[in-house]
Design a protein that fits this description.
It is built from 9 helices and 5 strands. By secondary structure, the chain is α/β, with parallel strands linked by helices. It has a 5-stranded parallel sheet, with helices on one face. Helix 7 runs antiparallel to helix 8. The longest helix is centred in the C-terminal third of the chain and has 19 residues. The radius of gyration is 25 Å and the shape is elongated.
């Protein structure tokens, strides 16, 4: 058995690995392997068991070795290959996807992420409208995290144009970040105040 687990939800992936391989399994770092190592992993047996339980981490970072994986699909061992990300355009992936199970353990996308960026974009010209948009996500968003996302957008703006306004925005955001971390009193009011001030900075 060979399965490939991919995605950034390592907690769910590890729970499934434990369920399938048990508590005691071999862990092999895929980035350290050469194609010559594969026969002993996929075909070699141990002194105690004919069937081995093996976890290989990040094999695809080592492209020359990963390309040889289809040669070992008939392994008698239980092998799970854990990848953060797989290139679905690669010939190896296309070859494997119809022959073995590839399970995606990706974390759910944040539905508010696009709206956060839209709020910042709108706030640059219309603070009142941005505050109204903010009210839609306040219940499910965390003020300090929201401020961090605003900072990431402001840094992009500054990278594109290092003007006076961009510097002022970053200065105000750094103050907002400090204020949010030092008080628990109405943090969203502080965020709203920044959004209303943004057009005039």
């Amino acid at each position: 058995m060979i399965k490939i687990f991919t995605g950034d939800d390592r907690l769910r992936a590890n729970q499934t690995i434990t369920r399938l391989l048990g508590q005691n399994y071999e862990i092999i770092e895929g980035g350290d392997l050469t194609p010559n190592d594969l026969p002993s992993i996929f075909q070699g047996s141990s002194l105690f068991d004919k069937t081995r339980n093996i976890l290989i981490r990040d094999l695809s970072v080592n492209q020359a070795t990963f390309e040889k994986l289809p040669d070992y699909l008939n392994t008698p061992h239980n092998v799970i290959i854990l990848e953060l990300k797989l290139d679905k355009r690669s010939a190896t992936y296309k070859n494997l996807k119809d022959q073995i199970e590839i399970i995606d353990f990706s974390l759910p996308k944040d539905p508010n992420l696009k709206l956060v960026f839209d709020i910042y974009k709108i706030a640059k010209t219309d603070g009142q409208r941005a505050v109204k948009m903010l009210s839609k996500i306040q219940a499910s968003e965390e003020p300090i995290r929201f401020c961090g996302l605003l900072i990431s957008q402001a840094l992009k703006d500054y990278k594109n144009h290092q003007g006076i306004k961009e510097k002022r925005v970053l200065h105000e955001l750094s103050k907002l970040d400090l204020d949010l971390k030092s008080t628990s009193f109405q943090p969203w009011l502080l965020v709203q105040s920044f959004l209303l001030k943004l057009p005039s900075l």
